[in-house]
Amino acid sequence: IHFPGGQTAVNFSPDSSKIAVGLDDSTKVDVLSGKDLSYLYSPDSNGVTGGNLVAVSWASDGSSLYAGGSYWSSSLSKRPIRKWTDGGKGRYVDLSATDNTILHILPLKHGGIVFSSHDPAFGIFDAYDRKAIYKSPAIADHRDNRKGFLISYDGSTVQFGYEAFGISPARFSISDR
Fold it and tell me: What are all long-range contacts of 124-127, with beta carbons under 8 Å and residues at least 24 apart?
């Protein structure tokens, strides 16, 4: 097991017999023994071709393992949370979560998870993998809009986009209100 200098996330299974490890420079999740830290297995990360799976969490009963991070799914057009059955040894499903990097995942007592992301946004997937709640950011997202973020010479007018990449453009003029 290699723990590079970047961010590392660890999470104990509910019975403390296993530890899930996610790294900010890898799309791989490792599961270690909670007794002696020996390597046990790595859940299937096929199809995770970029980004990372640094945020890791077990289901409240240990039956599933979840991971998210900066991994982007073009088929979902979102940052997904990958859920593996059988404690990370079984099949997986990618849950379409949010537009930005997944920062944290926590289990809910009666199944499902709550997650937060960098934009900031948060949401809940219920025990049936349905997105029960999603709260998008209540702020303008100025990422990747260098050409569309403009200020007049005298500073009285600003043009920007409410969404990343300049989507939902707006212009505000102090003198025109």
Answer: 125/81, 125/95, 125/97
Q: What is the pTM of this model?
A: 0.81
Do 82 and 98 form a contact (C-beta atoms < 8 A)?
no
Confidence of residue 5 (pLDDT cuts 50, 70, 90): low
52 secondary structure, DSSP code: -
pLDDT band at 1 (very low <50, low <70, confident <90, very high): very low
Quick count: other Cβ atoms within 10 Å of Cβ 34?
A: 15
With residue 20 as reference, give the H or E element that holds it. strand 18-23
pLDDT tens digits, residue range 16-56? 999 999 988 889 999 999 999 999 999 999 888 889 999 99
Cα–Cα distance for residue pair 131/141, rounded to 1 Å: 23
CA 54/CA 146 separation, integer angstroms: 29
> For residue 142, which phi and psi values (nearest 5 degrees)?
-95, 10
- Taking the alpha carbons at both ends of the chain, their separation in whole angstroms is 58
User: Parallel, antiparallel, or unpaired for β 29-33 and 18-23?
Assistant: antiparallel
3-state secondary structure of 64: coil
Contact 85, 91 (CB under 8 A): yes
d(CA 3, CA 64) in angstroms, rounded, equals 24
Pair 113, 105: CB distance under 8 Å: yes
